[in-house]
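A reminder from the course coordinator: this example appears on the midterm review sheet, so study it carefully.

Given structure:
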């Protein structure tokens, strides 16, 4: 039975997850291909993902694993799962479907792969975040609101990393919206499953391992996909400024998460 204690964190996780879709709405203001916009979006998203990985996900995983295994083992385990996550992203990249045939030149195919891999990784990212939002909100509503707000701020630019490359590789706003929506819905799905099945079994260790894996996936996306693709357009000032804006966005969002 859903009580107010359960309903509030479920709603919070839905709001946080759907904030990803906001990144897709930028497409409604873009009628033609804008290489400067693509450069900005990809670089900004890289800054966001790199910063989230190091200042949120990896730090959280290392802290938890160290508390159970000691500092040395905690750090080594965190690095191990981060590397496993990067390997998972590499395998996803190898088996990713090709771009649609009508848009299969090298640039568009690369953009499609960036968007698709980003969607898969962010689905994996959002699922445990939904669990974390539910569990924290279930125990403490104020804490749940703070976490949901911080996640929502993270998810908006992360949605851009899916929507922009999917749109410019397929010329379909609908596909960009759907791919971004799929990623966002993983968050309330995680919260709902936590409510139905996982409450007795989810613990700090499982969440820590998941966060380390996701950090590895996001770092792979940033360094192997987002940054190289952004640099191809040769707008170097936009590229650098956008990366730092992404970094600043996540650092400033920490104001609301503590």
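Designed residues:
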């Amino acid at each position: 039975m859903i009580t107010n204690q359960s309903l509030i964190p479920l709603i919070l996780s839905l709001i946080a997850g759907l904030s990803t879709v906001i990144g897709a709405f930028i497409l409604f203001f873009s009628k033609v291909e804008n290489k400067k916009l693509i450069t900005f979006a990809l670089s900004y998203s890289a800054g966001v993902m790199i910063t989230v990985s190091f200042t949120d996900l990896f730090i959280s995983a290392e802290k938890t694993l160290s508390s159970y295994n000691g500092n040395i083992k905690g750090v080594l385990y965190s690095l191990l799962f981060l590397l496993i996550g990067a390997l998972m992203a590499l395998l996803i990249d190898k088996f990713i479907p090709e771009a649609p045939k009508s848009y299969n030149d090298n640039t568009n195919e690369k953009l499609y792969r960036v968007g698709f891999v980003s969607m898969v990784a962010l689905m994996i990212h959002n699922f445990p975040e939904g669990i974390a939002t539910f569990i924290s909100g279930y125990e403490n509503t104020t804490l749940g609101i703070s976490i949901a707000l911080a996640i929502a701020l993270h998810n908006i630019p992360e949605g851009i990393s899916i929507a922009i490359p999917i749109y410019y590789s397929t010329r379909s706003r609908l596909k960009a919206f759907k791919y971004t929506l799929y990623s966002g819905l993983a968050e309330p799905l995680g919260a709902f499953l936590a409510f139905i099945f996982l409450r007795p079994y989810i613990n700090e260790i499982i969440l820590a391992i998941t966060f380390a894996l996701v950090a590895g996936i996001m770092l792979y996306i940033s360094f192997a996909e987002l940054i190289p693709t952004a640099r191809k357009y040769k707008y170097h000032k936009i590229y650098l400024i956008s990366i730092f804006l992404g970094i600043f966005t996540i650092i400033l969002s920490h104001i609301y998460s503590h």
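The chain has eight helices and no strands. The radius of gyration is 18 Å.
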